[in-house]
Amino acid sequence: MRNDTLYSIGELAKLTGLTVKTIRFYSDRGIVAPTDRSPVGYRLYNGDAAARLALVRTMRGLGLDLPTIRKVMDRELSFPEVAAAHAEALAVQIGSLRLRLAVLTAVANRGSTPEETDIMHKLAQLSENERRRLIGDFLDAVFGGLDAAPVFSGVMRSMTPELPENPEAEQIQAWADLAEISQDPSFRASVRRMAEDQAVEQARSKTMVPCRDIATTIRDLVGPALEAGIDPVSPRADPIVAAFTAHYARLLNHPDDIELRRRLTTRLESVNDPRRERYLQLLAVVNSWSAPQSLTPVFTWSVQALRVRTQQ
Question: N or C: which end of the chain has fewer CB within 10 A?
Answer without folding.
Answer: C
